[in-house]
Amino acid sequence: MSHNATPNTSRVELRKTLTLVPVVMMGLAYMQPMTLFDTFGIVSGMTDGHVPTAYAFALIAILFTALSYGKLVRRYPSAGSAYTYAQKSISPTVGFMVGWSSLLDYLFAPMINILLAKIYFEALVPSIPSWVFVIALVAFMTAFNLRSIKSVANFNTVIVVLQVVLIAVILGMVIYGVFEGEGAGTLASSRPFWSGDAHVIPMITGATILCFSFTGFDGISNLSERPKMQSASFRARSS
Predict the structure, then answer these.
(1) pTM above threshold 0.70
(2) Per the UniProt record, which residue ranges are transmembrane (predicted)?
């Protein structure tokens, strides 16, 4: 008497513990809205003040990737994101390489954020050694990430809201300064986009740095198994 073992082919998924809003907020947190204040000065020096045009170049380049993610997340609703897309669309070997490349991105991005935060804290409290801020920030972020995905989502929501408020305050101060005669003295000017001393190559070089502000859709696609809503609804909204 023989027994035919039936393999378990059921798909293993992550627990659905999030709604759409926290998922979107985590994607926005990954994009880091206030990153523009970190990179603006660097890119402004590279492009002779033509940062908006550099952002336009970055937007055009990233738009094709974002559209691809929108199509792939509907076809492969998996938390593997780029790894899964490359593995199933091209080959397992390419997926393996993309997966390790993505892992490096997820390792380096927090390091950059910690270093930027350290610079700000060091400027605010110069009497405290910089390594203290680094250790404290790493310990805090690690502890929070070890709690649960819902805790991380709630924390990211608070961070995004604070960033939006700060951006609104800074934008209001800029508009007030323009009306007071500072800068170009007008809200509408073509000089930040193009002028006589503008050069395309420095703008494209600056765009490579500004691409750092357009990585949130990858973070959202990594959470495609987390929303409580039906996967088809999430895929439609995320794309």
Answers:
(1) no
(2) 20-42, 54-73, 94-116, 128-146, 158-179, 199-220
